[in-house]
Amino acid sequence: MTKNLDISAISIAQISAVIAVVDYGSFTAAADILGISQPSLSRRIQSLEQSLGVPMFRAVGRNMQLTDAGRSIVPAGRRILDDLSSINALGATTRQLKTGSLRVAGLPSLIGSVLPEFIGPFHQAHPEIHLEILSVEDHEHLVEAVRLGRADLALGVSHSVPADLQTQLVQEQEFTAIVSADLASDSRVDVDLLNKLTLLSLPQGTSIRKITDEVYRGLGATPPRIITTTQRDALVPLAISTGAITMVPTIMAKAAEVYSGRQLPLPAGTARDIGVIYRRGAFQNPALTEFLRFL
Questions:
Q1: CA–CA dist 59, 57 (Å, integer)
Q2: Which of 97, 150, 185, 223 is 20 to 30 Å from 216 by CA-CA measure?
Q3: Residue 262, CA atoms < 13 Å, CB-side half-sphere
Q4: What does the alpha-carbon distance between residue 50 and residue 118 come to, in Å, rounded to a whole number?
């Protein structure tokens, strides 16, 4: 006579114990990850085996391998844990949006120009969420901030995002050139102008400099002199005061007239895609899930 399966005797702790052994290869490692003693882990698995009526593991050397029965049961166990995580996350959404936090990293030029459009409405809708905003200098540091958990999401250029991270496009940001108003009114950005004027820009490796270099390469030009600064907000006034040319996102060019400068259009397509970068499956922070709805 077949033994009736007592589902009520199966616990989440037992399933977690089995999955941990599968993922980490031994009872010792699994117990350490779960924060319990090895005897406690063994008792959980033995209790599950008794409830199911089948062994889950067999010893192969120093490692534990799934039996055929265990191999057929584990996928269902993973689905149970995943579903439970989703339920917990949905419950946390209601609780944590009153006491949670959201950490946002971004390139300096984007924190001041793009982020306010989204972070402002988010804060007004959820004033209880604690916000932290930090700036990083380049794309690599953005990725590192998200991977290491220093930031829940990062605002940057949507290119070369590693496969383990998720990206969502926010907007396409057009660029324009800034020169002194003393330049001839019929001047335009061409090879002659670029070969004549000093270039003022950010250091190599930054997104703005990358776009600038692409314009020079596309027109077959080479700047006769280069002035480099790390201060993005100083690009426009410095370029105008030195009689140089700089290329910046159009939103940063609004200050040109204040400093007696003017804008010159760049070749069509001179732009960069701006997006947010975050960890896949990052639903564990309800504030992040909610913020993405504002984009």
A1: 7
A2: 185
A3: 11
A4: 54
Question: pLDDT (tens digit, 9 = 90+) per residue, 2-35?
Answer: 445 555 668 888 888 888 888 777 888 888 888 8
What is the band of 282 on the pLDDT scale with cuts at 50, 70, 90?
very low
Give the pLDDT confidence score for residue 242 in this predicted structure.
96
Listed residue (9, 4, 38) closest to 24, CA to CA: 38
* pTM of the full structure: 0.61
Whether 57 and 24 have beta carbons less than 8 Å apart is answered as no
User: How does the average pLDDT of the chain come out, rounded?
Assistant: 86
The encoded tokens of residue 216 equal: 């020079």
For the CA atoms of 281, 287, 289, 295, what is the dihedral angle to 10 degrees? -130
* Model confidence pLDDT, tens digit, residues 39-80: 999 999 998 888 888 898 888 877 778 898 888 888 888 778
Residue 176 burial class via C-beta count within 10 angstroms: exposed 0-12, middle 13-18, buried 19 and up: buried
For Cα atoms 6, 10, 11, give the angle at the middle one, nearest 5 degrees.
155
pLDDT in tens, 224-233: 999 999 998 8
For β-strands 130-135 and 101-106, DSSP reports them as parallel
